[in-house]
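[job 0417] fold request received: CP-type G domain-containing protein
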Amino acid sequence: MTEQSGLTAGAKCSGCGIALQMDAPELPGYLPAQALERTPLVCQRCFRIRNYNESSTVTVDQSEFLRLLSEVGTKDALVIHIVDLFDFQGSVISGLQRFVGNNPVILAVNKIDLLPKVTNWNKLRNWVQKEAKEIGLKTEEIILCSAKQNTGFERILEVVGEMRGNRDVYVVGATNVGKSTLINRLISDYSDLEEELTTSRYPGTTLDTVNIPLDDGHFIIDTPGIVYESRYTELVTKQDLAAIMPDKPLKPMVYQLNEGQTLFFGAMARFDYLEGGRQSFTCFINNGLKIHRTKLERADDLFADHAGVMLAPPTKEHLADLPEWTRHEFRVPRGSQYDLFISGLGWIKVNGDTGALAAIHLPKGVKVMMRPSLI
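[job 0417] inference complete; emitting structure tokens
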């Protein structure tokens, strides 16, 4: 036994076979202290699957996830790739196709409940299809869904039923995209865990996966959530995460700006409008995150004097933990409709057709890009 944890060195989960650990709940193999008396020992994720028919998310870094994903192409599998519509470019696995080979992919686009109700869903589906094609991802079907409102999941289950055949079902996605909710729906519809002996061992012994038995001898393969450090959501504290991740429909904020004006999104990001004449910009961000407008000439001093206080979140304490800011410049072509997208934070739609030159400042490494307008 180790003095620190009371856990035998090398102890493994009797459910999935992973090495047990007691230090990090978000990582595979986590065993709470109160579970040390259980016989046999099972990790928290297997315990919840076995006793509550529920899966909880664990995470791994990008390189480990890609190693895990490379095994999928060698199997006859159905892949469900779930992404976050609010952070589409940040949560989509751009290299998925080369790993899954010819296996069919269902693209489940979650969090559609965050968009305004007047959204044209056919146009949105076409937008997703074009963006997926742009990164080389072939999809058998694109399904718009909302885990929160439980919409679209019935269609996912229908498609899984139609396409599964003799395949196992792999569910892949980044962190915070709703993967666990989908896994739990699949478990409740396709798996009969009550017949599993409490001492039985799930066959998933590869690192970080759990193979959930289906009633026909096949499995749902619950993969860990991939951590993309280019998403703002991976950089902030849990407190600030709540401030930037919306949990209700967005209320777009429209700003009429002149050249030489700046918008601060708390102390998370800064938008400078440099050229293009007076025009409007629509901000799609969590409505709890305050936007502050100022003149470009005052922006540096304002940030230096008020970041972490008036410009917040994050607080000064947490601001110091973020990477140093970098500047990204974008020229929006005349007569086009584009968003300036910040992974994990939202996007700014350029509404005018006269073109624009703008700059975005934010912590180094956070993904920022110009894309065709989502709405």
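[job 0417] notes: Residues 135 and 265 are 29 Å apart (CA to CA). Residues 193-207 have pLDDT under 50 and may be disordered.
[job 0417] exit 0
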